[in-house]
Amino acid sequence: MSAPVAGHGVTGAQDAGAFLVRLTRLDPGAVVRLRSHHGRTELWARLPWNVLVSRSVDGAGPGDATVVAADLLTQLARGGRSLPVRRDSDWRWGLPPDGARSVERLPSAELHRVAEAAAGTLRDATAHGVGGQPVGERALRDALLDHVAIVVTTDSTERIEISQRLVQGVTRMGFLGGRPSSEESDLSDVHVRIAGRWVGLAAPYGAAWLPAANQLGLRPATPRTFG
Fold this sequence. Notes:
alpha+beta; DNA Polymerase III, Chain A, domain 2; eight-stranded antiparallel β-sheet; three-stranded mixed β-sheet; DUF8010
């Protein structure tokens, strides 16, 4: 980690603000953890569906501090440099270890498609039920989030399941950006990464992480397969 600086130490206010705006829309009371890393600041947060998301922004950062996301957003919006009241005890989650390795690349257009299909399924099921029977929206949402949307098979034959939770993490946080043109497709690809027991999607504007089930001894599934 870099040496801490006075205040929040974030100079990439636009990028940090984009992260915080999305985060606070999804969870107005969310906390964000700032970690200094090689002269930049990593922003970490946990979404309501238990996915960790991160974005690296300019600025040396405060070292390692947790604050209320809305308070930091207010500071950045007015050009303030002070670190909001620390809430370090409110951060209760582990982070993926360093040394993540990329095992596959996915087209961002595919993740857009998967996310949109899930949203359509939720709308239809909420309106018409499942098998003619009404189902609560929350139960439907939880079932969709747990659905395995993509399976990646690595060169060493590991089966890595990408759940809808991760897909929703990168799409709803805006990490994919807009739909790329054919010339931009390679730059907008999303990398599937493994770090210890964690599985992540690293998109152009941020990453989403979730602990893998059974240490990558994953269940059979019937989604689209890559690799």
